[in-house]
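Work through what follows:
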Amino acid sequence: MLTINKENNTTIISGVKGDIFIIPNRAAKIEDYFEAFRDKYHGIFERQAEMNGLDLDAGEYGVETWIVSKEDCHCSNMADHRPYITDPETGEDIPFCLVDGRTIIRSLIDGKEGDVKTVRLPISINGRYHDEPYNGILEIELTLKQKEYRYARFGNFEKVLQDVCR
């Protein structure tokens, strides 16, 4: 069930479901991102790890993904299109953007085709671009579904994840 709560100045949207598949581009090790992109990405990997209670290892990978949540977020590409949720209490549509775009740390999505992972991602409520400061958290239950979407020809979820993180 979709819920919206406020903690301090952060809006937390939970109960959202979606699918995730991997864009089969070579994943980069986080240590490679750190120097060149730390400021540009606002510490996205550190933030993702912290939100999900993980310790971040510099040998971790940033994986390009595509998240689909047609029912809950009315969106077939949450990184590039402007998703929104409908507040169950007021009926108001609340647009947001994924602050980190489509790159997610491997530990959050490590699994096999069909597995379900609950992940917390930073969002910008009413935001339009990936580089905006975050003021919300999207808690989304993601089903790992490589074979049902674009790039299915590259194999199942675990094979593609292994291939891109070499």
User: Anything to note?
Assistant: The beta strands are 3-7, 10-22, 28-29, 61-68, 84-86, 93-98, 103-105, 116-125, 136-144. The two ends are 38 Å apart (CA to CA). Residues 7 and 32 are 33 Å apart (CA to CA).
